[in-house]
Amino acid sequence: MHKKPNEHAARASTSSLEKEALAVALRRECAAFNAYALAFRGSGSMIGKHLELKYAHSLRVLQNAEAIAMGEDAFRHNPLAKRALLMAALYHDLGRFEQLARYQTFRDADSINHGLLGAKLLRDKRFLSEETPQLRRLVRAAVLWHNRLNLPQGAPEPLATVSKALRDADKIDIIGVLNEELHPGHEPDKTIVLELRNDPKQYSPKALEAVMAGRAVLYADMESVNDFRLLLCSWVFMLEFGSSLRLLVRNGYMENILASLPPGQDMNKVRARVHNRLRDRTRH
Ligand SMILES: [Fe+2]
Fold first, then answer.
1. pLDDT digits 0-9 by tens, 151-174
2. Phi-psi region of 38 (alpha: psi -120 to 50; beta: other; left: phi over 0)
3. Are residues 193 and 138 in the same domain?
4. Cα(267) to centroid of ligand 1, in Å?
5. Alpha helix (H) ranges present in 195-264?
6. 7 CA to middle of ligand 1, Å?
7. Residues with CB under 5 A from ligand 1 (ion)
8. How many domains is the chain built from?
9. CA spacing 20 to 30 A to 1: which of 90, 128, 158, 281?
10. Average confidence (pLDDT) over 75-82
11. Which domain range does residue 231 map to?
């Protein structure tokens, strides 16, 4: 049935009001996040630099999340899911600040699970206090799950969709940041590459096997910086949404990472495997 013109107009104005309300709420939460991050400024210059990077990362993950939400029906038709995704993107690394200040590392295995810490801080520090309890629960759960290897089976909707998109948005920016650090010939920042050895020829057979099988390389299987490159390559199999892969292709980071792999047959196979995946998933 056709809608009358005034019904169309009413709908359009509701959605523009919704958009404006979401923009206001996001500005409010960005200010709260900024105030929280600023409090860690005095924690030493090395820490200050890395926390500033995490702050900038969080804002870029928010931008990636906005791009995914715009490209996917699951968010275009569900304002609650979209709102939860954007808030979760902003706050997903909240736990990183206390983690680095307390333990001087981003390695969860040597310190604390930063997803769990972030979810606790969201509650204890009363972030999102003007949002509904339902939205707060969604954001906390998505933050808690954002750094797990796999999402729990049978997660309810819209939490499962929000979590998948958050993990995509996060991965895309990590690929971008590492792309800057992993230029051949550049000595990468040790904290960013998780203190891995930088031997230009070395790579682990386990990491290679995982990429070729279309599985995520495990953090625990990384021995050198090249394994980090392979881990980033393996994420093309983990990204859930077509919009995420298109964003990745558009920004060109994956090409640079592929070009920075060491020479040899093994790595040629990796390049072909990754290119095939990108081609298959970004076709319209
Ligand atoms: Fe992140």
1. 999 999 999 999 999 999 999 999
2. alpha
3. no
4. 27
5. 205-212, 225-234, 242-251, 253-259
6. 41
7. 93, 170
8. 2
9. 158
10. 94
11. 182-282
